[in-house]
């Protein structure tokens, strides 16, 4: 893939939609590999990306999943949906809001997913919206599924980041912060969460 084209698309969407894009640069390959490490690889699975943007995480995830797996992505930005359809024809892209996740997946013939990978910019969302989206994600996971997301170390002291970490703890029985990924701009932390509560 042409990385400069991906970069230009990402920056263009970030400038036009600063309230929906939570980073200044596309996610690095170092974060992408850290995220992909938690995706099931020992048999066919269903993997869902939320807010894939330009698809920086999609390639490493696709390389890891086993043959026969489904790899879906829900993206709210129509321009990014078109971009993903053009550049990643193997990715099942669904245009829509993650608030309607159960309906969007049902329309795609999916009941449960084994992994949810989120690139949603959580710190740009109010606490009630964070919890709504986490509830939607947890509701479509298999009992042994994993929810993975990325936050930025530069936002750890912000109230919305603390609220989000609290929401993760309220939504999942296990919230495991993995080691920081310093080779990203800004430095990132990957969280792997299991066993949805309720």
From TrEMBL:
Q: Which residues form a coiled coil?
A: none
Q: Which GO terms describe its biological process?
A: methylation
Q: Which UniProt keywords apply?
A: Methyltransferase, S-adenosyl-L-methionine, Transferase
Q: Which InterPro entries match?
A: Methyltransf_25, rRNA_Ade_methylase_Trfase_N, SAM-dependent_MTases_sf
An annotated Gene Ontology molecular function:
methyltransferase activity
Q: Does the keyword Lipid metabolism apply?
A: no
Record keyword Transferase present: yes
Residues forming the Ribosomal RNA adenine methylase transferase N-terminal domain are 31-157
* Protein's UniProt name: Methyltransferase domain-containing protein
Q: Which Pfam families match?
A: Methyltransf_25 (PF13649)
Organism lineage reads as: Bacteria, Bacillati, Actinomycetota, Actinomycetes, Pseudonocardiales
């Amino acid at each position: 893939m042409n990385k400069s084209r991906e970069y230009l698309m990402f920056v263009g969407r970030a400038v036009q939609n600063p309230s929906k894009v939570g980073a200044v640069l596309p996610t690095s390959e170092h974060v992408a590999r850290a995220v992909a490490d938690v995706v099931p690889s020992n048999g066919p699975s269903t993997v869902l990306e939320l807010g894939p943007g330009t698809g920086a995480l999609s390639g490493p995830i696709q390389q890891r999943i086993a043959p026969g797996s489904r790899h879906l992505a829900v993206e709210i930005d129509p321009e990014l949906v078109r971009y993903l359809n053009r550049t990643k024809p193997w990715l099942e892209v669904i245009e829509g809001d993650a608030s309607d996740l159960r309906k969007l997946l049902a329309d795609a013939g999916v009941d449960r997913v084994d992994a949810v990978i989120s690139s949603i910019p959580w710190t740009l969302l109010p606490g009630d919206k964070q919890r709504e989206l986490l509830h939607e994600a947890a509701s479509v996971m298999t009992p042994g599924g994993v929810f993975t997301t990325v936050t930025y170390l530069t936002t750890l002291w912000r109230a919305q980041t603390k609220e989000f970490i609290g929401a993760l703890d309220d939504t999942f029985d296990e919230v495991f912060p993995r080691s920081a990924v310093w080779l990203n701009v800004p430095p990132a932390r990957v969280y792997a969460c299991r066993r949805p509560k309720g």
